[in-house]
Amino acid sequence: MTLRSARLLVLLAATALAPPASAKDGFVLDDEVAICAGCHGEDGVPVDPEYPAIWGQQYFYIYTQLRDYAAGRRENEIMTGVAAEYDKDQAKQLAEHFAAQTWPAIPSQAQDGDEALANTAFTAAQCSACHGKWQGDSRIPRLAGQQAGYLSKTMHDFKTEVRMNAPDMSNIMKQYDEPTIEAMARYLSSLVLH
C-alpha cells in the first residue's frame, strides 16, 4: 500500500464516521475530484476492477447515485460516508464535472461464447428497452466499456438485493446464473463506442 493510499483510507474512514452534513464545509471542487481520483483514477481508469469508471458517465445518473448513497438507498463502505457529506448543489457539481470528462479506454476482452450468451439474456429481459445501445441516457448509465469486475459486482448486488435502488434490476438479475452474469459483464466491458 502506498503512502497516498494509506492517507486516502484514513480520510475515507474519518468521512464514513462523520455525521451527515447538509453541505460539506469548505467544499472545493478540485479537492473533491482529487479525493474521487483516489479510487476512480486520475486518468479515469479506476484503481480496482470492482470500482466503476465515472469519467464520461451520464450526469443525472452520477448525481442520483450520489444522492442514493447519501440517503442509504445504495450502500458502500466508502461511498455512503463520502456522499453523505454533499448537499444537492455539491453533488451536482461533482456529477457535472465527471460527466464532462472523456470516457476512458479500459482494455477488456470478451471470451468465446460471451456475446451469444449475453445477447440471449439481454433479449429475454428486454434490456435494450432501457439501456438502448449501452451508451447511457440521463438516468440510465453507460455500460459499454465499463469495468467487467464492477458490472459483475453490480449485477450480483442486484440479484442478492444488496443494492436496492433499482427494484426492477433485482427482479431481472434473479433470473441469471453465474456464467450468464459473467458473460454479460465481460461482453459489455468489451464494447467500444465510437
Question: How are the SSEs ordered, and which strands pair?
Answer:
Elements: H1 3-17, H2 29-40, H3 59-71, H4 79-84, H5 88-99, H6 114-125, H7 128-131, H8 148-159, H9 167-173, H10 178-190
Helix pairs in contact: 3-5, 6-10, 8-9, 8-10
Describe the structure.
This is C-type cytochrome. The structure is a single chain. It contains 10 helices and no strands. The protein is globular and about 50 Å long. It is mainly α. The protein has helices at residues 3-17, 29-40, 59-71, 79-84, 88-99, 114-125, 128-131, 148-159, 167-173, 178-190. It has 2 domains: 3-99, Cytochrome Bc1 Complex, Chain D, domain 2 (Orthogonal Bundle); 114-190, Cytochrome Bc1 Complex, Chain D, domain 2. The longest helix has 15 residues, at 3-17. The chain starts with a helix and ends with a helix.
